[in-house]
Design a protein that fits this description.
Radius of gyration: 19 Å
Protein name: Prolipoprotein diacylglyceryl transferase
Distance between the termini: 43 Å
Number of domains: 2
Order of helices and strands: HHHHHHHHH
Number of helices: 9
InterPro entries: Lgt
Shape: globular
Organism: Aminobacterium colombiense (strain DSM 12261 / ALA-1)
Helix content: over 70%
Keywords: Cell membrane, Lipoprotein, Membrane, Transferase, Transmembrane, Transmembrane helix
Largest sheet: none
GO molecular function, one term: phosphatidylglycerol-prolipoprotein diacylglyceryl transferase activity
Strand content: under 5%
Number of strands: 0
């Protein structure tokens, strides 16, 4: 909720998006996130289980709440609303960049306290033991790697936004959101292999998601840089 309110404030105050459209957009994003989570639950439970009990896709406490599915769902619904209402894509994207990094930085502490998304065994001094593990088993705190990594991304984006400016920046293009996609994608690529479920459920889906974020972010950032260079030399 805090991330939504911060995005709402940034969109209105910093990037000049009308309040009514910003509110409707965030409502669509919320619906998209729920749809993404339900899709993840359906994949997690399997086709037969969903056919037997369709409401099982709402049993979020049983797992399947992958951040990728919620992210994709939220983005799809957001793009639908943006193009339908002719909102400025770059303004919306920049509004959501810092709150998204903050959401991950805070939200991963919930994973850490719950003991989910745990890491593989390690002998490092910063290893942790979760309540469900034997006393001698120490794991990588992968949730904290994500959290502190997202915090570093947040600070970097904040500094870049300060340098670039907000709605009145020199070139009207998104830089923060593409950078977020690239940095978060690379963080997942490096940290995911330290998770225990990486070896239990396979690596293909996670790798595809992470590399897709890096590729999309790289293409988007290249386009924004091209617009900046063209603006400078025009």
């Amino acid at each position: 909720m805090t991330a939504f309110l911060w995005t709402y404030k940034r969109g209105i105050q910093y990037y000049g998006i009308p309040p009514s459209k910003m509110g409707h957009l965030l409502g669509m994003v919320a619906l998209g996130i729920i749809a993404g989570i339900c899709t993840g639950m359906g994949i997690h439970l399997g086709r037969e289980a969903v056919f037997q009990d369709p409401l099982s896709i709402l049993h979020f406490w049983k797992g399947g709440m992958s951040s990728y599915y919620s992210f994709i769902g939220g983005c799809c619904f957001a793009f639908f609303y943006i193009f339908r209402t002719k909102l400025s894509l770059w303004r919306v994207a920049e509004s959501a960049s810092l709150p998204s990094a903050a959401l991950i930085a805070i939200g991963r502490w919930g994973c850490f306290l719950n003991g989910c998304c745990g890491g593989i065994p390690t002998s490092h001094l910063w290893g942790v033991r979760f309540a469900i593990d034997p006393e001698a088993l120490i794991r990588h705190p992968t949730q904290l790697y994500y959290s502190f990594g997202a915090l570093a991304i947040l600070l970097a984006l904040q500094w870049i936004e300060f340098r670039l400016g907000e709605s009145e920046r020199f070139v009207k293009a998104a830089f923060l959101w593409p950078l977020f996609l690239i940095l978060w994608g690379f963080l997942r690529i490096f940290v995911d292999p330290l998770r225990i479920d990486w070896y239990l459920s396979g690596i293909e889906a996670s790798h595809r998601g992470s590399f897709s974020m890096v590729i999309v972010g790289g293409i988007w950032l290249s386009y924004s840089c091209w617009k900046l260079i063209r603006k400078i030399y025009d």
